[in-house]
Structures are given as structure tokens and as C-alpha cells.
Design brief:
The complex is a heterotetramer of chains A (649), B (493), C (101) and D (172). By secondary structure, chain B is mainly α. Chain B is built from 22 helices and 2 strands. Chain B has a two-stranded antiparallel sheet with strand order 1-2. Chain D is an all-alpha fold and 172 residues long. Helix content of chain D is 73%, strand content 0%. The longest helix of chain D has 30 residues. The radius of gyration of chain D is 21 Å and the shape is globular. The chains are: A mainly alpha (649), B mainly alpha (493), C mainly alpha (101), D mainly alpha (172). Chains C and D meet through helix 1, helix 2 and helix 3 of C and helix 1, helix 2, helix 3, helix 4 and helix 5 of D. Chain C: It is found in: Cell membrane; Membrane.
């Protein structure tokens, strides 16, 4: 297709807007670097302004591209012999929406950063890299070609490395950025091999062209699994997820950006773009990986004490859900969750940042010092930070998937897709469904545990502090994002995910029986009840506290009118409810420990083990290198004669 | 039977296709004489040497169109064609870059005239080697490269330099003696020294025998030594560690590419278009797999940057061999592309390793924190390493992509499992190489170090490095330009 | 005229002997002598094969060039050995192994 | 059995015995003398294979040139150390086995082989103007390798001078 064709379908205004949406973040990157040190405050005006312009452009693109034929623009990059490499842009509904979400969230994060990063010594670098980060992500979103995606993929990795290590004076931050960089490279190596396999097999990188090719399933399984390796690294899936919690060392707005709109979502988005490459066998692997990640993340989130780490593990768990949905053959459900997640997770992080910011300011004034991110030291902040509390509850409800919030819709879509998948596929598919159901249950638990611990109860370390809400530049983005976390933007009907987005970002399948929706609503509310019941408990001592609550619960049950059934009910309650709570608590401890152990022994062990294996092979190959020349000659002669004899015989 | 006069006449016409080599030969003599006059002025000999290489390069480019029609020179001792011309161009450019690098190094300057004359001799030998089609010329030009290289390896004038020189010499002479022994049997088996002659291939196809296999194996051993492929590689790390860095950069490119050029011709004859009774593709694939594994896995252990590059050079030979092992015309084209990307990437890396070496950083740990102080050199070094690994956006990626494509095509044509294995090993080794190539950048950017230095970014290295980096990025963003040029090369005997 | 095979057997013997000398002798000059043996084995082959093709001189010419190359190798090799000797005070190749990481 | 054949086996035996002796020689000096014996025996074999010019070169260049240089080297190194040069062996068993394996493989391969000959061409008069034939060949067909060896010799000379120069071994 030549540029001319596309201009007939799309106005030149559209093309200019698309170009603007892409180029303005890059411009922001370049300009921020060239602002002189003296005027570095200017970057905090310049960068958000440029991002706003980019967002407006993206909005126009979204408006014009929505439900139109995909905009494609392609030109020959280079050609060798009979192979032609192309590079180009492909904007369909999903990428237009993603374009808008990325620029929008990035814009809000920019605005928020004005307040959050005020006074930072490396403000120029910060805003420059934010712009570059956004640009790289936009590149992934609009590229029509796997090779180009890989290039931007690497750039995203590079800029996240720079941002996570923004405070590089801190050893932890340097270590975390290194870890993110290296673990991502491991995944990227797989991606690279996948690319080579795709190329050798299909002789094209263009996604639309690949879609049209008849591909050999065995090779495509191998290639798609290799590409999935890249996704595993970038989207923090099992077993390459360890960098994500560590990446919390970066500034909080960066975490918001990484978790909501850029970086980790890139993997899921790529899965959506290249979904057709995945054979059923590969999709099974994808689904299982996603389910494992979701489970590990959810349980790990339960046992964390650092407010940002809880959110990090929750992101990992939500990404696991998206990947599982991809594996179940429902990319539109996964993408829907990607979009809803982008808003509420950004809001959660910004709220967490607001708490951290407010407490830091307060600490600074009254000269006390404690770890403001440790939730064990927090409590009762509802009165001091009412606005942040509301924001946190709204976005937390969306994360938990309570009805009337966006998270409910998208999680419902994933559950419906999984129900459909397990009905139609192999028997073990049920396991994935059950895992996902369990994860959505645990999600409620940890979200509200966080809310209750931070905002309710007694004030602990903060009692003596004078805490004030952050400035309006920080509150406004939170409000916008919280507003975007309610259902109305995604579907008119709060109990049906089948709204304007879901139906138009892919070949939407309507699995929707009211049953799933109702069941999931009931399930989430049950979880909410359990969360409420166990709200005050510390995870460490919950086994001791166990009896009291169960007794309370049982006593209420005994007070039921039917005395004859009382004993039976009592025993049933004892047996079931007690057993259930016990099991939950035990499971939490066990899985949390398991996750910790897993992280240390298997994941680190895996990385170390792979390196160790490679090194031991290396020490073998190197052992012929004793430094003695005659030994060298001997080994060379030996190799040759063995080779000759082997061939002669 | 031609008369003597006719032979003289044909010799005289041969000079027409031989101008760059004549320039080089004259240059060697001039440099030696100039060295006697300007004993104390190393700059003048450097300039002279650069001029000689530049002249040779310009003549190559001038005659580029004339090389398009292959012809034999000097009674078919040499073959002038665009394949060898392309390699000679890379070799000349590498020579120029080496001269530029040397001007920054005080060590070789004590014997500067000798140094530059030896450099020019290696270049001349490399020119002759890629053009050779007679076993005698192959041996002579290979020895020309080797003997000069042995001396160049010792130009750091330290104990280690001498040791590297001795090891290089002993290992090299034994392998060239083995190669010569193989050549003598090939001569006996075919009755001719001209391996492009029809009777050479005919004899080998019609009378295959164990001796033919043994002889060819011996002959290949010499080539594998020259391109530093396993199992003839043990000298590489020692020599790379001990020799002056400009010389190492030179060794990593010039003898390797020259050896590769002649190896490509020679194996094509051995394979005889698939008519050979013995499967030489199998041998090449096995050697490539072995080189990749030995080079990459041993490199993981290294603590010294140059030693690490030595093993990396072994591994890169494996990748280069992939292009030959495909036994496809397109494979040769892709090989040339990869060779160009390799040469540029390798020079970037050595240029900056040299730069840091002169600042006192040679072990991997000592690079800790250099990225913060010497930003641009470290970034350029990183790009060089990325290219050697084969990641986008560098020419190394494009090159690797191409040669694996041709390997895949070869697999589809032949269906041999060894080819598939080579592909799998090659891709896996790309991953392994990531771990050690990124170690220096890792130390430079991630680790903290205490360096107090004022840096001047406008240095000679940075200008040259920028040029090379732009080149390597260009090879990624627009490989079509170079590939279009390469595609005009007709590789056939 | 003896059959060409007998030349070749002697050549093979010299080649193998040269190799053994190179690998086993703990003296660099002895190693150089072994090297000369290996080169001479090839020369013997070349001359012997040339006797099968009386019309051409290819083998003999090659042998001549090999002799010249052998001269060069011996000169360079001895120079290197002498320098090793000056710096390491030894002519045992095994003792020259400081590069052995 | 005619005279050339007797001479042939005599030279073969001499070369082989000297080679075996070299294997066991413990003195570098005797080693060098044994190599001279081998080289002379080979020169004899070259004459029997109608390569008089090569034979003469062998005697002049090898026996007269290379070995003088080598013996000079032996003298120089022993003068520097002041100790008699007794040569030990390293890796005697594995080195010997590899050598034997090479020999075995080669003999096996050679024994199976017949070599092509070109009888049809009239035998050029090799006796009286061999030198002239070689000279013409050097100046016509082999002019390139001839000139190449010229440069090779020059560079070997320069290289050897650099490596052997006293100046070079000074510590930097």
C-alpha cells in the first residue's frame, strides 16, 4: 500500500496528528536535554505542555481512527536480493486507543511529577527520559513490523533502566536498574531468536503480511514461544518477574508510568498484536505462565509491608491475568483489562506517591525519621489525607473488581473468556479458571488490607506529624485517573463488559451469560466480607487471632432461630467457615513463604544455574588453555587426528 | 605451449589488474627507506603508510568495474574478481584504521618504520591471499601474513609480548607446515597446483579416496588457524592479550577476512557443487559449532578485556563460517555483509579498549564507573559490543539475520540435520555472547567507581569512533545500499 | 626408479617425527628443528609427485619456494627464540607461560 | 637391483634412522647435526627424482644456510646460560601416540592410493639445462611467487632484526 491510498481514507489532518502524537514526546526528550542547567525548572513546564499537545493529537487520532479501516503507512526500508524489508505504521482501533491511553497517562504523570519531583537535582534528565520512555512505548504501539517493535522494545528497556536508576546515588536503585536491565535482556534474547525464526520462515517482519502467510505450526510454536520469552521479561511474568518489585526503587511517578501505560503493558500489547502467530500449544504455555504469575503475584502482594511493593506485586498479578486471558484466546478481554488497569493502577501509584510525598514533607518539618513506605508504621491517615483516601479507595475498588468500577468489567470479561475456554478445551483448563478465580479473590483481600491498614485504625508513627494534602498539580491527575476508574467510560451497563471498547478492539466474542457476571460480583463481595472480617489482623499473628473471629462468626450463626439446626449449623460453620478461614490463612503464609523461597531458590537459582552451567562448560573448553604452547599444539593435533580417524573408519 | 615472449606479454598485461598490490609493494620499500631517513619522525612514516593504504584503496575503487569480469593473472596464479576486490577494500580500510590507532600508541614507535612496513606486508599478503588460486600462492601469501604477524605480535616489547610472539610463531608454523603437507598431497592427487583448474576438481570427484580427505583436512587446518577457528584457536587469547591493541584490532579483522576469502573459494572447490563424495558442509558446520561453543563459553570466564576479545574473535569466526557453510551464492553475499559489519564493530570496540587501556583500564573490573566519567567513549564502546552481539539497531544484527537466513535456506535445500544444529547452536550462542559482551558496559555503567578526571570529548578517538558508529548504525537502518553493492558481486569459480 | 609410494612413506615418517619432536622436546631450538622436518616432508612429497609429471615443473617450483619460506621462518623463529631467551632466561617452552588465565 | 635403487634405499634408510635418532637426541647440537644428515639424504633423493636444482638448493640453502643459523643460535643460547644444553622431554607418551597415529593414518591412506601420471608429454631434457628451464619458469609462469618471496625475504630480515635487536628487550 502506498501513502497515497491511505490519504484517501484518512485526512492529512489525521496524519499530522498522528505524527504529532509520536514526535512531540521525542521533541520533549531533545528539548529537555538542551535546556541549560540554570533554567532546569523550565523543563517542568515544557515537558508536560508537550505531552499535553501529544495527548490532544492522540485524542484526535483516536476519534478519527475509531471504527475506520486500519490506517497503514509503509515504505520500503531496504531490500536485499529478493527480500524487501519494510517499515511502517499501523493504526487500528486497539493501537489508537493504546496511543491515547499511553499519552494520556504519561501526560498526567508528567503533571504529577511537577509537584512530586520539585527540587530534584536532575530534573532535566528526569523529564527528558520520561519523554523518551513515552516515545519508545508509542513506537511499539504503532509499528507495523516486528523488527521495528523490537527496536523500540529495546529503547523502552534502556529508558526504563535510566529512570529506575534515576536516583543512582542509592546503591539499591543502581542495583534495581541493573536487575531490570539484565533480566529484560534475558527475555529479549529469546525475542531475538524468535524474530530470526519468523524471518527465516516467513521472510517478512510485517505483522499484517505474516497474518496472511500459511505458516508451519511446529516452527510457529517455536517462534511464538521465543517471542513470548520477550514478553515474559518485559511484562514480568514467571520466572523473570523479580525485577518488577525491585524497580520500585525508582521515583513513584515512574513506577506509575511503568506499571500503567508503558513497559510492562508493552508485552501484553505485543501478545495482542502477534496473537495470530501463537499456535494452540503455545497458547497453552502462555495461559499457564499467566496463571502462575497471577497466583504468585497475588499471594506475594498479601505478605508485603512496603506500600509500593504491594502495588508492584499486584501489577504482576494483574498482568498474569491478562496473559492468561491471551492464552485463553481472548485478546480483547486482555486488552480491555489492560486499558482499565492503566487508569486505576496509575491512580493507585499516584495516591501512594501522594502519601509518601505528604509524609516526607511532614517528616522534613518535624525532623522525625521512619520508613514512610512501611505500612506497619502507618494507620489512621483517613482524616489527615481525606482526598488521597478517596482516590485510593476508588482506584482500589477498581483493582479489586468491585461492581460499578472499571476493574469489574474487565475482570468479568477475562473470567467469561476463561469459562468459555474451559468449557470448550481440555479438562485441565478448569485449573486455570480456578486459579484466576482465586486470584481475583485474593486481590480483594490485599487491596482492602492495604486500605484499612493505611487509612483506618490508630495512627502510629504519624500521630505527631502535621500532614497536609499534596499540591493541586498532584491532586488533579489523581482525580482524573480516579474518575476514569468507574465503569461508565468502558460500558454503559455496569454489569456488562460488552461495551464500545470491548466490541471494537478485536473479534469480540460475546461469552457473556449473566451468570458469570453475577457469580463474579457475588464472589468479589464475599471476598470483601472476608477482607473486612480479617481487616485488623497482622499476617504474622493471624493464626493466633484466628479463634476469636471464628467464634464471633459462629456465635452469630448460633443465634439463628432454628435451634434444632443450631448444633448442626454450628458444626458446619465450625467446619466450613473455620476451615475456610484457616485454609486461607495457611495458604497465605505457605504461598507467601513459597513465593519468597521460589524467588530466592528457583528464580535466582535459575539465573545463577544457567550462568553456572555456562561457566562450567566454559571452564572445560578453557582447560585446554594451560599456557603451554606444546600442549596447545598437542591438543590441536589430537583434535585433527581424532577427526581424521573418525572419518576414515 | 606458449613461447617465452608470449608469457612475458601475458605477464605484462597481468599488471593491469594488479595495481593496488604494486602500490603496496612499492610502499613497503619506500616506508623502509623513509624509516632510515626519518628515524625520529614516526608521524611521517605513519602518514606515508596511510597514504599507501589510501592509494591502494582508491585504486581498488577505481578498478571496481574492471574487476566485475573475472580473469586470471600471472598464469592463473591469481584471480581478479569483485569478490576478492570487496574483501581487499575492507582490508585496506582496516589497515588505514590500524594506522590511525597506532598513532595514539607510543609502544610500536621505537621501530616505527619496521612496524608500518610489516603492517603493509600483512596487507599485501592479505590481498594476495584472497586472490590466490594456486596452492603455491596460497602458501606464500599465507606465510607472508603469518611471518609479519609473528613479529607484529611482539611489538609491545614486553615479556608478555615476546611470549605471545613465540606461541603465535610455534603454533602458526606447525599449522602452516601441516597445511603445506596437505597441499603436497593435493598436488599429487590432481597433478596441478591450480585449484580452480577443471582437472583439479575432476580428479577429486572421479577418484575420491581416504588420502584426499586426509590431505584436505590438513589443508583446512592451516586456514582454520588463520581465521582463528576451533580447534586451531589456542594461540588466540594469548596473542590478543599480549600484543599491542592496534595490532590486535588488525589481527581480528585482516588475516581473518583474508583467510575467510580463500577458504570460501577452496571449500567451494572441495564441495564441487555437491558432487564430492565427502560432505565438506558437515566439516564446516562442525567447526563452526565448535568455534562458537569454545569461543563463547570460554569468554565468560575472562577477566582481561583483550583476552575476552580473543575468545570473542574465535566465536565470531564461527559466525563467519556459517556464511560459507551454507554453500549458497546468497550465503557468500551475506557473509560479505556480515564481514563488513564485523570489521566495523570490531574496530569500534578495539578503538575504545585501546583508549581505556591507555588510561590504565584493562581488566573488566577496572572499567567500573567509567561510563559516568567518559560518557561518549563508553557509549560508543557499548554500541560496538551490541553490534558484535548482534542486537538492533546495529549492522551486526542485520548481518546475523542475513547469514542465518541463508543457513535456513541451505537447510531447506539439503535437509541435513547438521545445518539445523548449526542454526540452533548459533542462535543459542547469540544469547550466551550477550552475557560477556555486555560485561564491560555493565561495569562501566552500573558499577560505581571513583574516577576523578576531566574529559575532553573532542578527541581523535571520538571523531573516528563517531564515524564508525554512524557506519554501523547505517548498516542497520539502510543495509540496502551496501547490500545492493554486494549483490553485484558474482561469486563463481 | 623407486615407486612414488616409498617417497611418501618416508615423507609421512618425517612428518610424524617432526610433530613428535615439536610436541615433546623441551627446547625451543629443537622444536624449530622438528618444524624443518615437517617442511621437508612436504618438499619430499612435492618433488616425488613432480616426477610423475615430467612435463611440468610445478612441484619442483613449489618446493623451491618452500625452501625460501623455510629460511624466512627459521630466521624469524630464531630471532624470537633469542628474545625469549634474553627476557625469560630459558629456552624451555613450558617455562614461558605467564599468559595462562 | 640397479644402482639408483640401491642408492634410493640407502638415502631413505639414512633419513629414517637419523629421524629416529633425533627423537631420542638429548643434545641440541647433535640434533642439529642429525637434521643435516636428513637434509643431505633428502637432497640425494631429490636427485634421484630428477630434481637436481632443488637438490642443490637444498644443500646450499638448508644445509649451508639455515643450519648454520640454527647452530649459531644454539651457541648463543648456551653461551648466555653457561649450562650444557640437555633436552628433557615433555608429554613423551601422548606426543608419541599422536605422532604414531598420524603416521598410521597417513600410511594407510597412502597405501590405498594410486596417483595420476602424465606420461604422454615428452620428457624434457632435464639433464643438461635443468637450471635454464627453472630459470625460464621463474621468470615467466612463476614470476609472481618469485617476486613475492623477494618481499617475504626482505620482511623476514627486517622482522628478525627487530625481534633480535638488543634495544627491543629493554624494559619499557
Amino acid at each position: 500500500m502506498t501513502p497515497l491510498d491511505t490519504l484517501q481514507a484518512h485526512s492529512s489532518f489525521f496524519v499530522i496528528c498522528l505524527g504529532g502524537a509520536l514526535a512531540l514526546p521525542l521533541l520533549s526528550f531533545l528539548l529537555c536535554f538542551y535546556v541549560s542547567e540554570k533554567y532546569s525548572w523550565a523543563t517542568s513546564v515544557l515537558a508536560p505542555f508537550l505531552m499535553m499537545a501529544s495527548t490532544v493529537c492522540a485524542a484526535v487520532v483516536l476519534y478519527q481512527a475509531w471504527n475506520h479501516p486500519a490506517f497503514t503507512w509503509q515504505r520500503v526500508w531496504f531490500s536485499i536480493a529478493d527480500h524487501t524489508f519494510t517499515a511502517g505504521i499501523h493504526v487500528n482501533n486497539a493501537s489508537a486507543l493504546m496511543l491515547f491511553v499511553v499519552t494520556g497517562v504519561s501526560f498526567l504523570v508528567h503533571v504529577y511529577s511537577i509537584g512530586y519531583m520539585a527540587g530534584d537535582t536532575a530534573l532535566r534528565r528526569y523529564f527528558a527520559m520520561l519523554g523518551f520512555f513515552t516515545f519508545s512505548m508509542l513506537g511499539i504501539v504503532v509499528s507495523d513490523n516486528l523488527l521495528l517493535i523490537f527496536v523500540f522494545w529495546e529503547l523502552v528497556g534502556f529508558s526504563s533502566y535510566m529512570l529506575i536508576g534515576h536516583w543512582n546515588e542509592s546503591p539499591a536503585a543502581a542495583e534495581a536498574s541493573k536487575r531490570a536491565f539484565i533480566i529484560n535482556r534475558v527475555g529479549d534474547a529469546g525475542f531475538l531468536i524468535g524474530l530470526m525464526l519468523v524471518w527465516t520462515h516467513g521472510h517478512t517482519f510485517n505483522i499484517e503480511a505474516l497474518r496472511a502467510l500459511p505458516l508451519d505450526p511446529a516452527w510457529m510454536t517455536a517462534a511464538s514461544l521465543c517471542i513470548f520469552c520477550g514478553v515474559v521479561g518485559k511484562s514480568a511474568q514467571f520466572p523473570l518477574f523479580t525485577w518488577l518489585p525491585d524497580a520500585m526503587e525508582g521515583p513513584t511517578p515512574v513506577s506509575a508510568l511503568i506499571h500503567a501505560a508503558t513497559m510492562v503493558t508493552a508485552g501484553v500489547f505485543l501478545l495482542g498484536r502477534a496473537h495470530f502467530l501463537f499456535t494452540p500449544a503455545a497458547l497453552n504455555v502462555v495461559a499457564i505462565t499467566g496463571a502462575i504469575t497471577a497466583l504468585l503475584g497475588a499471594f506475594a502482594a498479601l505478605s508485603q509491608h512496603d506500600i509500593k511493593k504491594v502495588l508492584a506485586y499486584s501489577t504482576m498479578s494483574q498482568l498474569g491475568l491478562m496473559v492468561a486471558a491471551m492464552g485463553a484466546g481472548a485478546p480483547e478481554a486482555a486488552l480491555l483489562h489492560l486499558f482499565t488497569h492503566a487508569f486505576f493502577k496509575a491512580c493507585l501509584f499516584l495516591s501512594a506517591g501522594s502519601i509518601i510525598h505528604a509524609l516526607h514533607q511532614a517528616q522534613h518539618q518535624s525532623h522525625v525519621n521512619f520508613d514512610v513506605q512501611d505500612i506497619r508504621l502507618l494507620g489512621g491517615l483517613r482524616k489527615k489525607l481525606p482526598f488521597t483516601f478517596i482516590m485510593f479507595v476508588v482506584s482500589g475498588s477498581a483493582l479489586a473488581g468491585l461492581p460499578l468500577f472499571s476493574g469489574f468489567l474487565s475482570k468479568d470479561a477475562i473470567l467469561a473468556a476463561l469459562v468459555h475456554w474451559s468449557n470448550t478445551g481440555d479438562a485441565w483448563h478448569w485449573v486455570v479458571l480456578l486459579v484466576v478465580a482465586l486470584v481475583s479473590f485474593v486481590t480483594v483481600l490485599y487491596t482492602f488490607r492495604l486500605v484499612w491498614t493505611i487509612f483506618n485504625g490508630e495512627e502510629k508513627s504519624t500521630a505527631s506529624l502535621v500532614v497536609s494534602e499534596p499540591p493541586v498539580v498532584m491532586r488533579a491527575p489523581m482525580a482524573v485517573l480516579a474518575l476514569a476508574s468507574v465503569w461508565i467510560w468502558f460500558s454503559w451497563n455496569p454489569f456488562s463488559f460488552s461495551g464500545w471498547i470491548y466490541n471494537h478492539i478485536g473479534a469480540a466474542k460475546d461469552f457473556h451469560g449473566g451468570f458469570v457476571s453475577m457469580a463474579s460480583a457475588a464472589w468479589v463481595l464475599l471476598a470483601l466480607a472476608v477482607a473486612y472480617a480479617s481487616r485488623g489482623r497482622k499476617l504474622d499473628s493471624r493464626l493466633l487471632a484466628q479463634g476469636f473471629y471464628v467464634d464471633l462468626f459462629s456465635r452469630k450463626a448460633i443465634e439463628q432461630p432454628t435451634l434444632q439446626l443450631a448444633d448442626l449449623t454450628h458444626r458446619a460453620d465450625k467446619k466450613w467457615i473455620d476451615g475456610f478461614l484457616h485454609a486461607t490463612a495457611y495458604a497465605q503464609v505457605i504461598v507467601a513463604n513459597l513465593t519468597g523461597w521460589f524467588d530466592r531458590a528457583i528464580v535466582d537459582g535459575f539465573v545463577d544455574g544457567a550462568a553456572g552451567l555456562a561457566k562450567s562448560i566454559g571452564s572445560f573448553t578453557r582447560s585446554f588453555q594451560g599456557g603451554k604452547i606444546q600442549l596447545y599444539i598437542f591438543w590441536a593435533a589430537f583434535a585433527i587426528i581424532i577427526f581424521i580417524i573418525w572419518t576414515l573408519l | 605451449m606458449q613461447s617465452f615472449a608470449e608469457k612475458l606479454q601475458s605477464t605484462a598485461t597481468s599488471f593491469g589488474g594488479f595495481v593496488p598490490e604494486l602500490v603496496l609493494s612499492a610502499g613497503i620499500v619506500i616506508i623502509v627507506v623513509a624509516g632510515l631517513i626519518a628515524r625520529k619522525q614516526p608521524v611521517w612514516t605513519a602518514l606515508l603508510c596511510a597514504l599507501v593504504f589510501l592509494a591502494s584503496l582508491l585504486f581498488e575503487l577505481t578498478y571496481w568495474n574492471a574487476y566485475a569480469t573475472p580473469r586470471g593473472l600471472f598464469s592463473n596464479m591469481l584471480r581478479s574478481d569483485s569478490f576478492s576486490a570487496y574483501l581487499r577494500i575492507i582490508i585496506d580500510i582496516s589497515g588505514l584504521l590500524t594506522v590511525f590507532m597506532t598513532t595514539r600508541d607510543p609502544k610500536p614507535l621505537r621501530f616505527h618504520a619496521e612496524y608500518y612496513a610489516l603492517l603493509a606486508t600483512v596487507i599485501l599478503g592479505a590481498h594476495l591471499l584472497v586472490m590466490s588460486q594456486s596452492l603455491a600462492m596460497v602458501f606464500l601469501s599465507l606465510e607472508m601474513i603469518s611471518l609479519s604477524s609473528y613479529v607484529l605480535a611482539g611489538f609491545s616489547f614486553s615479556r608478555h609480548g615476546t611470549e605471545g610472539s613465540l606461541k603465535y610463531f610455534l603454533f602458526g608454523s606447525v599449522s602452516s607446515a601441516a597445511m603445506l603437507y596437505g597441499f603436497s598431497f593435493l598436488y599429487g592427487l590432481t597433478g596441478t597446483l591450480d585449484f580452480s583448474a577443471p582437472e583439479f576438481a575432476r580428479q577429486l570427484i572421479e577418484h575420491p579416496s581416504p588420502l584426499f580427505f586426509v590431505a584436505a583436512a590438513f589443508a583446512l587446518a592451516g586456514f582454520f588457524f588463520k581465521i582463528a577457528a576451533a580447534p586451531l584457536h589456542p594461540w588466540v587469547p594469548d596473542v590478543y592479550e599480549a600484543a599491542p591493541t592496534p595490532v590486535v584490532a588488525f589481527f581480528a579483522v585482516v588475516p581473518k577476512l583474508a583467510g575467510l576469502g580463500v577458504l570460501a573459494r577452496f571449500t567451494l572447490v572441495l564441495q564441487a557443487g555437491g558432487h564430492a563424495i565427502f560432505d565438506w558442509q558437515l566439516v564446516l558446520c562442525a567447526v563452526a559449532i565448535l568455534s562458537l561453543t569454545v569461543g563463547n563459553f570460554s569468554a565468560l570466564w575472562q577477566k582481561n578485556a583483550k583476552r575476552l576479545m580473543g575468545y570473542s574473535s574465535v566465536a565470531q569466526s564461527g559466525f563467519l563460517l556459517v556464511g560459507i557453510a551454507a554453500f549458497l551464492p546468497q550465503g557468500i553475499h551475506y557473509l560479505l555483509f556480515y564481514a563488513s559489519a564485523y570489521a566495523v564493530g570490531s574496530f569500534i570496540v578495539f578503538l575504545y579498549l585501546h583508549y581505556f587501556e591507555r588510561l590504565g583500564f584493562s581488566s573488566l573490573e577496572s572499567f567500573a564507573g567509567t561510563g559516568r566519567v567518559w560518557l561518549w567513549p563508553s557509549v560508543f564502546l557499548l554500541i560496538g559490543f551490541i553490534s558484535l552481539t548482534g542486537l538492533p539497531p546495529t549492522g551486526g544484527f542485520t548481518g546475523k539475520l542475513f547469514i542465518f537466513t541463508s543457513l535456513w535456506d541451505a537447510y531447506q535445500l539439503s535437509g541435513k540435520s547438521i545445518v539445523l544444529w548449526l542454526m540452533i547452536f548459533g542462535l543459542l550462542n547469540t544469547v550466551v555472547s550477550l552475557f560477556y559482551y555486555l560485561r564491560i558496559p555493565f561495569f562501566a555503567f552500573v558499577r560505581n567507581g571513583k574516577h576523578v578526571a576531566t574529559t575532553n570529548n573532542l578527541t581523535f578517538e571520538n571523531l573516528l569512533g563517531l564515524l564508525l558508529v554512524v557506519g554501523i548504525l547505517f548498516l542497520f537502518f539502510n543495509p540496502g545500499l551496501l547490500m545492493g553493492w554486494i549483490n553485484k558481486i558474482n561469486f563463481a569459480l | 626408479m623407486a615407486p612414488v609410494h616409498h617417497f611418501l612413506y618416508l615423507g609421512a615418517f618425517l612428518f610424524s617425527t617432526g610433530l613428535i619432536v615439536i610436541i615433546t622436546k623441551r627446547n625451543t631450538i629443537m622444536v624449530l628443528l622438528g618444524l624443518e622436518l615437517m617442511l621437508n616432508a612436504s618438499n619430499l612429497n612435492l618433488v616425488a609427485f613432480n616426477s610423475l609429471h615430467p612435463g611440468s615443473l610445478q612441484g619442483q617450483m613449489f618446493a623451491l619456494f618452500v625452501i625460501v619460506v623455510a629460511v624466512c621462518e627459521a630466521a624469524v623463529g630464531l630471532a624470537i627464540v633469542l628474545r625469549v631467551y634474553r627476557q625469560y632466561r630459558t629456552s624451555v617452552p613450558d617455562h614461558v607461560n605467564e599468559l595462562n588465565q | 637391483m640397479n644402482a639408483p635403487l640401491i642408492l634410493f634405499y640407502f638415502f631413505e634408510a639414512a633419513a629414517a634412522i637419523a629421524a629416529v635418532a633425533l627423537l631420542f637426541a638429548r643434545s641440541v647440537f647433535y640434533g642439529a647435526l642429525l637434521v643435516i644428515v636428513i637434509l643431505l639424504a633428502l637432497a640425494g633423493l631429490y636427485v634421484l627424482a630428477f630434481a637436481e636444482f632443488v637438490a642443490v638448493t637444498q644443500i646450499l640453502v638448508y644445509a649451508g644456510g639455515i643450519l648454520v643459523v640454527i647452530i649459531f643460535g644454539i651457541m648463543l643460547t648456551s653461551r648466555l646460560s653457561g649450562k650444557p644444553l640437555v633436552v628433557e622431554h615433555t608429554l613423551p607418551v601422548s606426543g608419541g601416540l599422536v605422532g604414531l597415529a598420524f603416521f598410521g593414518a597417513l600410511v594407510y591412506a597412502i597405501a590405498l592410493q594410486t596417483f595420476p601420471t602424465s606420461e604422454s608429454v615428452a620428457k624434457t631434457s632435464t639433464t643438461f639445462d635443468a637450471t635454464q628451464t627453472v630459470g625460464i619458469a621463474l621468470m615467466s609462469d612463476y614470476v609472481l611467487p618469485f617476486e613475492t618471496t623477494g618481499i617475504l625475504l626482505l620482511m623476514a630480515l627486517i622482522g628478525a632484526a627487530v625481534m633480535a635487536s638488543d634495544n627491543a628487550s629493554k624494559k619499557i
